[in-house]
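Assemble and predict.
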Amino acid sequence: MFYRESGDFKTSYAKDTQTFPIKLDRIGYYVILAIAFITIPVMLITDVGGGANYWTNAILLPFLIWAIAAIGLNILVGYCGQLSLGSGGFMAVGAYAAYKLMTSFPDLSIFFIVIISGAITAGVGILFGLPSLRIKGFYLAVATLAAQFFLVWLFNKVPWFYNNSASGQISAPTRSIFGFEITGATATPEAKYLFCLVLLIGVAWLARNLTRGRIGRSWMAIRDMDIAAEIIGVAPLRTKLSAFGVSSFFIGIAGALFFAVYLGAVEVGEAFNINKSFLLLFMVIIGGLGSIFGSIIGAAFMVLMPVLLKNIMVNQLNWPTDIAVHFEFAIVGALIIIFLILEPHGLAQLWRLLKEKLRLWPFPH
Amino acid sequence: MNATAESYVTEDGRTIGAPVLEMKNITLKFGGVTAISDISFDIREGEIRAIIGPNGAGKSSMLNVINGFYHPQEGEIWFHGEKRAPMKPYQIAQQGIARTFQNIALFKGMSTLDNIMTGRFTHMKTNMFWQAVWKGPAEREENENRDIVEHVIDFLEIQAIRKTPVGRLPYGLQKRVELGRALAAQPKLLLLDEPMAGMNVEEKEDMSRFILDVNDEFGTTIALIEHDMGVVMDISDRVVVMDYGKKIGDGTPDEVRNNQDVIDAYLGVAHD
Ligand SMILES: Nc1ncnc2c1ncn2[C@@H]1O[C@H](COP(=O)(O)OP(=O)(O)OP(=O)(O)O)[C@@H](O)[C@H]1O
Ligand SMILES: [Mg+2]
């Protein structure tokens, strides 16, 4: 009854294209922001129940970081229609760029380290995007798969990337912003959480802006009908490369955070292997191709589901862990198939449909 | 009418200017198939120029040559009095040539509004930085272009389907949206490949009216391929007739109608 656009007639184009045209959505958005910026940090600081570390490491950080990466991949796959299986490799680029920057410039703020790491990854992404002019779909996926394996191999093989450390691992030294430690052993959960949260909001905002205007439409035009896009004046290579660049920028940021803030120490073959590429792709498919919001709920879903299943099956029902893991695979597999066949626009579309129903309720016509 | 003069006046009193596009001795081959064989014709400022011919005559191929999708083995293309160097389709779009396709080529995942907004692409310039922060130039440019797009939407009478994903629209409306996307570019030359194919009489009348109005109100030069002879004779100023890749007639609808080659090769077969 109350779930309506603020008025039937929009008085300006800006209002017509605003992100949350419905008042209740806007309120919901502010409520979520308030919880994210006030409630959760307060809970982490006061550490009621002593779970601050668990919550941060099992749910909050992975969710925020994967959401950034998922937005990145969604730009490329969902908006521009270029299938990529190289995300793990690109995250590794972000991670190693961050490591080299942290160790080479000890005074550089962690914020700039993360952003520059993203920029470096963007460059690498553009390079690996070059074949996309000639090859499409499945073949492009294979080419990006090659990027995945090449990059992981490279970071394993060349000691310069891990500063010749004996273990071949990289580990993040303590770095901070405005005096708050974000990386390193002594950084607090709330500082890490807030840092990643701000970055996620920044990335989501940038992605939303890029996808609503000229550049976003040119990506979607290439995705939907590249020939028609070309006769409208969209240069295919430039457009695809800009999608590779923006996508890799975000994925690189996620990679840097994944290493420096979340894991702290990384062995590339383990942290950024092909499974990560698939995981990210699943988030984007389940969440919703071509939706920023979908990327975020896709990430939330893929992070929360294993935790939930583990809690139910292992802790409550006392099943062996490996069975729980198999179960998880089966569920994810089934969901991927269901979504790809029945609802290619994922959870975001289901949410949209639900809202559509609500808006018309109680009179369906 | 003298086809080589600098300008001519139509029956309904419109003055047609100098050639916008001149095709000179175009030959296009696909392996052994000669799709276009040594064809020359021009399209003049402000005119509605029809290209007709039986199936497989090479009409769509001709538009693809103009668009830069196909590169002819022989011949020259002159645009606004200058010989055109080989170009990519998107560069040709930037020069002010827009088109619609025989088989609808809309962006299926986008709304009517976004499809037509995409047609404004060559007129939008703000860089990625401003697009990303949105405030300032990007938003201003978006609104200015939205204004033009809204005019196109009003003009084509498709206000009601503004926000509808184009995949959900019936065929006739999809054709109209595609025309809108081409119009949004405010092209100097508009190419329409069978804009009325598969339409019922009423839809054809609407479409004919839009084509005439575009030409009349904005002075847009139009080249169109069409199989419906009634429509062609009604709305076009001059007609090129193709058959098996060759040009077999060129002139006003009346001239073409009375051309014996055309009657034999095309009209005689297609009609009666
Ligand atoms: N890309 C291509 N490769 C090979 N042959 C082609 C290609 N495009 C067109 N042809 C051939 O060129 C000839 C002309 O085709 P075209 O599509 O231009 O005809 P048309 O006059 O538009 O016909 P219709 O009225 O059926 O649309 C046909 O014999 C066609 O098979
Ligand atoms: Mg054709």
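Chain B touches chain A through 39 residues (CB under 8 Å).
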